[in-house]
Design a protein that fits this description.
heterodimer, A: 376 residues, 15 helices, globular, B: alpha+beta, seven-stranded antiparallel beta sheet, 3 helices, 11 strands
């Protein structure tokens, strides 16, 4: 709200808006329901703490209540929460609906624990999380805010990663090749984001998946480079790459078919996909060259930064710039070794980057028009 | 508008239906099958999601079920009639328990029993100092489910009522 006030004051000062218009805009925004993100944050925190308390009470395992009675009361509570979400949505109480929905989702996880406790069935945490992800995906579809989708994607991908690495379930496919697993996960997350967008998912839902694409993707790139540096022997069969290729094809189809992006943005996405896949194949092709790997990752980070800039996503743009800067630093240490040589190299690179940024700022519109004319 | 409402109702009901199906499945599996009592020995760690539980080794009366360290251990089948071990479902055996080897330990999914937080220490002492066993239900496919914990042949709840807590 403070940002809006400042912007409106700026516009009034430059005679783009009248005082009266600015006052009416401010009044409209303040009256908008669910606008207080601070209140929302604290309420969500309270719900999460409440849910953890419920889980702890279940863990205490009161012996005086028969197991089936505990399960019956649990289902009664779940039904009550589902009904609460329904009524809150019907009465347009968005924040209340979100709070109850979050509590409902977390109570589902507690319910899985209760059922396994009553029937003394064992199992790993990842199995519970995967089942929880499956049964609550419909609830995520109802959420309009970021926390519920974020919690869901965190639980789902953490459980999936653990299941792939620790069990024999996926051995036939991935053959316990961690590098291929790391390569595939961000692509799978991106494919889910494409599906979510295609099914009419909102920004909160798609954004949660996109977060995992970026974070796990950056981690995967770093892991691939470390593997290249220390191990040039790699023996994963081509079948291990199939999930990644299938996901990549799905993502490519999503990029081509979507109307959300401009032609330039689609080209940048396609390039990003290509430069993401390349490093994982270098080790497969026994090409353990640190300079090729550095060139590919620097190009990928640059492409992603450009894409984020074109999408107006300032925070992500800065994140990729920081990652790019760190990668330059690592490259110089790899190439030059000494601090003095590295320093000179960085000074030169800094000057080049500043010059390129100034030139890009001056001629970017002409470049974009030129590219779009050729693509069409 | 009605279609959208139905989707919302379906989305809200889906987790409850799934959990009810899970409960029903576990209940049926536990209630059917052959009932056995197997001796155990145990200790007490904590499971963050499901509370305190006893972990123990089950005495099947068969030595060296799991020999050596195995990567990606296959399923093992114990025939309790003939006290034998095989890598496939034995034919003609009335009571079969299916599991996997975790190092040198055979795990059939019945190696832990959930206990109340307040009674965990007392139960652990009782299990270690007396003859403890578990009552299980074994289905035709070899899957075993725990029904109850017995100490000296008595259910743990009855025994706790009779036994004063240690000072």
């Amino acid at each position: 709200m403070r940002k809006l006030e400042k912007t409106l004051a700026d516009w009034v000062g430059n005679e783009l808006l009248s005082d009266e218009q600015a006052t009416r805009i401010l009044a409209f925004e303040k009256a908008r329901p669910g606008g207080s993100w601070v209140l929302y944050g604290f309420l969500m925190l309270g719900v999460v703490v409440l849910a953890i308390g419920i889980i702890s009470l279940i863990a205490a395992n009161w012996p005086s209540i028969p197991g089936l009675m505990k399960i019956f009361l649990d289902f009664l509570l779940l039904a009550g929460l589902g009904t609460g979400v329904w009524y809150a949505r019907e009465r347009q109480h968005q924040m209340l609906a979100e709070l109850i929905l979050l509590f409902y989702m977390l109570l589902c996880l507690a319910s899985i624990g209760l059922i396994s406790q009553v029937y003394h069935t064992g199992g790993e945490l990842y199995e519970a999380l995967l089942f929880w992800s499956l049964i609550t995906v419909s609830l995520v579809g109802l959420s309009q805010k970021a926390l519920a989708p974020f919690l869901w994607t965190t639980g789902f991908f953490a459980a999936l990663l653990y299941a792939i690495i620790d069990t024999s379930l996926f051995d036939t496919l991935f053959q316990r090749q961690i590098i291929v697993v790391f390569m595939t996960l961000p692509l799978f997350a991106a494919l889910l984001a494409v599906f979510a967008r295609g099914l009419g998912g909102n920004e909160a839902q798609v954004g949660a998946l996109r977060f995992w694409v970026i974070i796990v993707g950056l981690a995967a790139m770093a892991y691939a480079e470390v593997e290249l540096a220390f191990d040039d022997h790699f023996s994963a069969a081509p079948v291990a790459y199939i999930p990644a290729y299938v996901s990549a094809l799905g993502i490519l189809a999503g990029i081509v078919l979507t109307r959300q992006y401009t032609q330039v943005q689609k080209i940048l996405l396609g390039l990003a996909l290509l430069f993401y896949l390349l490093p994982f194949h270098l080790i497969f092709a026994q090409m353990g060259d640190k300079y090729i790997a550095a060139l590919i990752s620097i190009t990928l980070l640059g492409v992603m930064a450009a894409l984020m800039a074109s999408l107006g996503r300032r925070i992500l743009f800065n994140l990729f710039l920081v990652a790019l800067g760190l990668r330059f630093l690592v490259l110089y240490f790899q190439a030059l070794g000494s601090l003095a040589l590295t320093g000179m190299g960085l000074v030169g690179s800094g000057i080049i980057i500043i010059l390129m940024a100034v030139l890009w700022h001056k001629y970017r519109k002409a470049v974009i028009v030129w590219v779009e004319a050729r693509v069409q | 508008m009605m279609t959208a409402k139905k989707w919302v109702i379906a989305a809200l009901a889906a987790p409850i239906i799934a959990l009810a199906a899970l409960t029903a499945w576990k209940h049926v599996r536990m209630s059917t099958g052959t009932e056995l009592v197997l001796p155990i020995r145990g200790y007490d760690p904590r499971d963050l999601l499901s509370g305190h539980y006893l972990i123990y080794q089950v005495d099947y009366g068969i030595a060296d079920v799991c020999r050596g360290r195995q990567r990606n251990p296959p399923e093992k089948w114990l025939c309790l009639d003939s006290k034998s071990v095989s890598n496939y479902h034995p034919v003609g055996c009335e009571v079969v328990i299916k599991g996997r080897c975790d190092g040198s330990r055979f795990r059939a999914g019945i190696e832990r029993f959930y206990i109340p937080e307040n009674e965990s220490r007392q139960l652990e002492r009782l299990v270690q100092s007396r003859q403890a066993s578990i009552r299980v239900s074994v289905s035709a496919d070899g899957t075993a489910r725990i029904k109850d914990l017995l100490i000296d042949g008595v259910t743990w709840k009855e025994l706790l009522l009779e036994t004063p807590p240690a000072q």
